[in-house]
Design a protein that fits this description.
7-stranded parallel β-sheet; Rossmann fold; 17% strand
């Protein structure tokens, strides 16, 4: 049984981490998986999936982040972990551009197969100075990737192109590995929903958003849209699930909606299927999404989605369940939502499943491809 070292950030419920967990669930009997978690200096945080990983017999190690301790100390810690583990057949990095330093460390440790995985189209915001610093680091990381990595994964062609050279993107070693989902878990769910749990009246519409409360998710717009709907007399409840990360976004969301009984913040949830199947519409207002896996999960659950243009077109699986909206005008968004919910047509479950599979978001198929690459 080959040993595969997965290099990740904290294993919380992010899109990349959820995709990796689905792969592990499919392949843990075929490979010896070991997780190396890169965390803030001196910390050993517990991730949402840690207990499940350990229940599968998967070992977990930790090292300090390179941006906290520098290249030399990061390399020393990486080497110490490798020596502790023993023989490793492949390293699979899930840290986007930081795959450069990981590739270098893995190569120096004698590991022959080094996979760098780009889980998003890389883009840097902020001041000119911060952009210069970020792109300078990216140049160095790309140099190490080009020199040491052997395989190149991306969640999309755009994600591949943002991290790897054109030569590598066009090579047989470059693969699009979709951030796929356990399809039937979402499409065939028949249990209690969040609507039942919250005792929302059957004649009220439920609009939902799943995702960490952070500035990039643009909950400010979402709050303004919901408030506009209420002012128009549109009877709807708004359910938000996700970890609180940005104080300003949290404050705005709760100040705008928090006193209304039709607003429900339900925190971090494991029962995503119960969430989606309680929604009449999925609302995604993000400024930017690497993929927008939650929109794929919502479609797999048969839920119509209204999304910002910050979501890539790739997340539309082709089941006629997605509408994209440009701009931040709450009135425009509200009118589109009312029109959508007033004219919603159900889509056959088999049609949805076929569309998701055709789009490459069924983890069963992606797991077969990854297994072949691990064994090559």
């Amino acid at each position: 049984m080959k040993t595969i070292l997965q290099v990740t950030s904290i294993m919380d419920r992010g899109g990349a981490e959820m995709m990796l967990m689905d792969l592990v669930r499919h392949l843990h009997n075929d490979f010896r998986f070991i997780f190396l978690v890169v965390a803030k200096k001196g910390s050993r945080p517990k991730g949402d999936f840690d207990d499940e990983l350990k229940s599968l017999g998967i070992e977990m190690y930790y090292i300090d982040a390179v941006w906290d301790v520098g290249v030399k100390e990061f390399s020393r810690q990486f080497k110490a972990v490798i020596e502790q583990i023993g023989h490793i057949d492949a390293v699979h990095s899930h840290l986007n551009s930081k795959g450069g330093i990981i590739s270098k460390c893995a190569a120096k440790a004698g590991i022959k197969k080094i996979i760098v995985h780009s889980h998003a189209k890389l883009r840097f915001d902020g001041s000119i100075i911060s952009k210069i610093a970020n792109y300078t680091e990216l140049y160095l990381q790309r140099y190490w990737i080009n020199k040491y990595a052997t395989d190149y994964f991306g969640c999309s062609k755009e994600a591949l192109a943002s991290l790897f050279t054109k030569k590598h993107c066009e090579s047989e070693k470059a693969k699009v590995i979709h951030n796929a989902i356990e399809l039937e878990k979402f499409s065939r769910y028949s249990g209690e929903t969040i609507r039942d749990e919250l005792e929302i009246p059957k004649d009220a519409f439920v609009i939902g958003t799943v995702g960490r409360i952070a500035k990039v998710k643009n909950y400010e717009l979402a709050a303004d849209v919901i408030k506009t709907l209420w002012k128009k007399g549109f009877d709807c409840h708004y359910v938000v699930a996700g970890r609180k990360q940005s104080e300003s976004s949290v404050n705005y969301l709760f100040e705008k909606l928090g006193n209304d009984p039709r607003f429900h913040y339900v925190g971090v949830r494991e029962d995503l299927t119960a969430l989606y199947h309680g929604f009449d519409l999925y609302l995604g207002t993000s400024v930017r999404e690497g993929l927008g896996l939650t929109a794929v999960e919502a479609q797999a659950s048969g839920v119509n989605c209204i999304l910002s243009n910050g979501f890539p077109q790739l997340c539309d699986v082709g089941a006629n369940l997605v509408s994209f909206i440009d701009g931040n005008d709450p009135q425009k968004w509200a009118d589109n939502i009312i029109n959508n919910l007033s004219n919603t047509k159900s889509v056959d479950t088999n049609e949805i499943e076929n569309a998701v599979r055709k789009s490459g978001f069924d983890v069963s198929a992606e797991a077969v491809l990854v297994k072949e690459i691990y064994n090559s």
